[in-house]
């Protein structure tokens, strides 16, 4: 029923859904899936935790060229500014600095 990740050809707009270690994904999501993927286990490992599964999958997609990572410098700056704004803490950045970064990014062509 499941296919090893090495045998899967991902489409450009694929969705990869990960479930947690205890309950997995919902029955409805499983029934809607075109393909169910398995990550091969080696050694004494019986399962991977969620963060390891995501890391292995992203590495596979990047290393096989199935997940192009070709953002322009402007796009990278906008993504970083957005992430900093959403994840800021008082210790890391002040609101004024983050807002200035976001405004600068928007003025240079960001949305």
Fold blueprint:
Layout: E1 2-4, H1 27-32, E2 36-38, H2 50-63, H3 73-87, H4 95-107
Parallel strand pairs: 1-2
Helix pairs in contact: 3-4
Explain this structure.
It is a single chain. This protein has helices at 27-32, 50-63, 73-87, 95-107; strands at 2-4, 36-38. It is mainly alpha-helical. A two-stranded parallel sheet has the order 1-2. Helix 1 (27-32) links the parallel strand 1 and strand 2. The termini are far apart. The longest helix has 15 residues, at 73-87.
- Count of helical stretches: 4
What structural category arises from helix and sheet content? mainly alpha
Helix amount: 40-55%
SSE order, as H and E? EHEHHH
The largest β sheet comes out as:
2 strands, parallel
Query: Widest sheet: strand order?
Result: 1-2
Number of strands: 2
Mean pLDDT rating: 83
Please compute the radius of gyration using only Cα atoms.
19 Å
**Unreliable segments (pLDDT under 50, ≥5 consecutive)?**
none
The rough form would be described as: elongated
Strand content: 5-15%
How far do the termini sit from each other?
A: 42 Å
Write a concise synopsis of the structure shown:
With 111 residues, the chain is mainly α. The chain has helices spanning 27-32, 50-63, 73-87, 95-107, and strands at residues 2-4, 36-38.
Short key terms for the protein model shown above:
43% helix, two-stranded parallel ribbon, mainly alpha, 4 helices, 111 residues, elongated
